[in-house]
Amino acid sequence: MILAAIGCIVPAPAALADSLTVRVVDEHGAALQDVAMALKPLVGVPAMRVAEFEIVQRDKRFIPLMTAVPTGASIRFPNHDTVRHHVYSFSPAKTFELKLYLGTPAAPVVFDKPGVVVMGCNIHDHMVAYVVVFDSPWVGVSDEAGELRLQGVPAGDYRLEYWHPRWVGADNSVAGTPVRIDGDARFTLVVGAQP
User: Fold this and answer.
1) Which of 125, 119, 66 is closest to 91 using CA atoms?
2) N or C terminus of the chain with fewer C-beta within 10 Å?
3) 93, 112, 134 - which closes a domain
4) InterPro entries recorded for this chain (predicted)?
5) 57 and 35 belong to one structural domain
6) pLDDT digit string (tens) for 89-98?
7) Residue 148: domain span
8) Residue 195 to residue 59: CA distance in whole angstroms
């Protein structure tokens, strides 16, 4: 069961841009890293920015483990190892394959459909990474302290969408909870072990 709790929402002075700071904890109150999050307006369609990201392969692992991107973003997959990798995904949100290679493939992979993408290496089974694609320009991933700050958010009503790797193997659907932004807001999100 997913639980969410709204903390104190404090208006900021008019001169400051609106923002949302999310603190994510597990069901025991411990900070939870690698939660992909996005703010999706309840009314209107936000302008999506074209963005490019990078997921590096180093020491036979993907860095970072979790990446959150807006729909339409492209991701490069440079291989900094001395061995070849074969990056792939069979996820409905993005199916792709980068066959055995060293260096950086010429073209990035474009993530044009929202959803959870689970990736692996066909040669090294222990390698795994996640990309969550959101229909929103306000995206990010919680840090080691379980925090994420989304800035430049217009005042209004939103759905805070989120996903965490502890849910892999479930239906991989993104969860959500309503949030109101009016000045700088703070929000505490409790993410349980099951979606």
Assistant:
1) 119
2) N
3) 134
4) Cupredoxin (IPR008972), MauL (IPR034242)
5) no
6) 999 999 999 9
7) 3-45+138-191
8) 31
